[in-house]
Amino acid sequence: MGTNGSTMLEPLRQGPPPIDPADASSSASCALPPRYEAVRGARTFTSRTLAAWDLSERFDDVALVVSELVTNALRHAMPADAPHGQDHPVRLHLMRWTSRLVCAVRDPSQDSPVASEAEDSAECGRGLFLVDSFSDSWGWHPLAGQTTGKVVWALFRLPGTSGCGHTDD
Question: What is the DSSP letter of 18?
Fold first, then answer.
């Protein structure tokens, strides 16, 4: 888990998730303002999207991971001198294939995410540990081209699928 490479997520290196139906059966995206209230908006967006995809039973795990990824982007990836005119520097993408769901958060920082060694009683510093615990795998990719920043993603296997032998994996 926590690998830095995946051919399945190669399109994320170029920015937004693939739109071609051959790549993903469904995708949804939302821009998030650089305020901590955006975490609640990301959870609401995730809830509505999963309900529309008939995946509400996955909400608890996915919403926890989305919350952690968005919080990390807002806390660690926003430059201190970022202009206030940049309204939506963080973007949440949800992509669904037959056998998997990917949530990805794009942010303006090129720094790799770092899992900290939080003590057992710590109330913060456990974000990537939670992402690793509640998703099937996670990783990150720097953005290519003119867009700067990175995408941090988490993959979830969907119920009733083994993830092996499917043409959409």
Answer: P
Alpha-carbon span 17 to 7, nearest angstrom: 13
- What is the per-residue pLDDT across 123-133, written as a single tens digit (0 to 9) for each? 455 678 899 99
Residue 29: what are its φ and ψ, rounded to 5°? -145, 145
The whole-angstrom separation of Cα 161 and Cα 98 is 8
- Residue 103's pLDDT band, with cuts at 50, 70 and 90, is very high
Residue 144 and residue 137: Cα distance in Å, rounded? 22
Contact by Cβ (8 Å): 148, 109: no
**137 within 8 A of 104, measured Cβ to Cβ:** no
Nearest-10 crossing angle of helices 127-134, 59-76:
150
pTM of the model: 0.74
Q: What angle do CA 31, 131, 72 make, to 5 degrees?
A: 45
Task: Tell the residue number behind the tokens 């294939």, with chain if given.
Answer: 97
CA distances from 67 to 3, 22, 88, 167 (A): 20, 29, 17, 31
Which band of pLDDT confidence, cut at 50, 70 and 90, is reported for residue 84? low
